[in-house]
């Protein structure tokens, strides 16, 4: 187990106000700010399949005792980005829960998503804050099965690939962190991490239109929406309010 990388968290205080893991609180506190991906999902389905394939290969290369044997995803105990929601950071898009091609709705049956969008987009206020460093945290305990770094991180008109971390939580469940800042990935394949551990910083690498985190959870490659609402029945996937 490695300690939190505190340096970045402390630096972030100067720009982002009180850096704490804040609850999404599902429907109550969610407000659309703007769409970063004007015409399509910011993580294309093809890229999701590619990273899933590599993650599966990495998982198979690890010793069984390095991986969780949990069969069910436990409620997520840490929000993946530092900052107060709706004050420092803003949720601008959720999982597309409409399977029909060319159509979409979010967990609230609203339009705050894009066709095939598989995760939650949480934006920061700009590149100045990206430069200072806004931390990205593991949402739950797990083992790193995907980590890549070294891609440009100031994209405003989309792009490909990017700086990405994937954490295996057992049972085919993986949490994903896309568009990370170049040079910020603080995890390597096979490393075990705990909820709240910093694994990178917010950036705008890959198919991105401004600095934000695309956070996604998949089971066997299929996106899962942790937010509960009228178009996503059942309990919230978040353990925090
Ligand atoms: Zn996204």
Describe this structure in words.
The chain has 241 residues and is an alpha+beta fold. The protein contains 3 helices and 10 strands, in the order ααββαββββββββ. The strands form 2 sheets. Strands 1, 2, 4, 5, 6, 7, 9 and 10 form an 8-stranded antiparallel β-sheet that branches. Strands 3-8 form a two-stranded antiparallel ribbon. The structure holds zinc ion.
Tally the helices.
3
First and last CA, distance:
27 Å
Could you tell me the number of beta strands? 10
**What name does the CATH topology carry?**
Glucose Permease (Domain IIA)
**CATH class, please?**
Mainly Beta
Listed once per kind, the bound small molecules are: zinc ion
Summary, kept brief:
By secondary structure, the protein is an alpha+beta fold. It has one domain: Glucose Permease (Domain IIA), CATH 2.70.70.10.
Task: Note the main attributes of this structure.
241 residues, Glucose Permease (Domain IIA), two-stranded antiparallel ribbon, 10 strands, globular, binds zinc ion
Helix-strand layout with pairing:
Blueprint: H1 6-16, H2 45-61, E1 90-93, E2 120-123, H3 127-132, E3 135-137, E4 142-148, E5 164-170, E6 173-178, E7 192-193, E8 198-201, E9 212-219, E10 222-224
Antiparallel strand pairs: 1-2, 2-9, 3-8, 4-5, 4-7, 5-6, 6-9, 9-10
Bound molecules: zinc ion.
Zinc ion (ZN) binds at residues 42-43, 93, 117, 119, 121, 214.
């Amino acid at each position: 187990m490695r300690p939190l990388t505190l340096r970045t968290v402390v630096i972030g205080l100067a720009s982002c106000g009180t850096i704490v893991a804040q609850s999404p609180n599902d429907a109550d506190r969610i407000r659309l700010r703007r769409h970063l991906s004007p015409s399509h999902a910011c993580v294309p389905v093809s890229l999701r399949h590619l990273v899933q394939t590599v993650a599966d290969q990495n998982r198979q290369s690890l010793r069984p005792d390095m991986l969780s044997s949990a069969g069910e995803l436990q409620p997520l105990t840490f929000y993946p980005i530092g900052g107060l929601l709706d004050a420092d950071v803003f949720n601008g898009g959720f999982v597309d829960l409409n399977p029909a091609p060319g159509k979409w709705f979010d967990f609230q049956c609203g339009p705050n998503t894009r066709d095939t969008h598989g995760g939650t987009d949480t934006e920061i206020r700009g590149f100045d804050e990206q430069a200072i460093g806004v931390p990205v945290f593991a949402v739950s305990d797990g083992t790193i099965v995907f980590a890549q770094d070294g891609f440009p991180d100031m994209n405003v008109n989309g792009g490909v690939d990017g700086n990405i971390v994937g954490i295996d939580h057992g049972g085919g469940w993986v949490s994903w962190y896309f568009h990370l800042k170049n040079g910020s990935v603080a995890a390597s394949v096979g490393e075990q991490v705990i909820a709240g551990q910093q694994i990178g910083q917010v950036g705008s690498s890959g198919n991105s239109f401004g600095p934000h985190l695309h956070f996604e959870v998949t089971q066997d490659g299929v996106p899962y929406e942790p937010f509960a609402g009228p178009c996503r029945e059942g309990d919230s996937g978040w353990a925090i309010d």
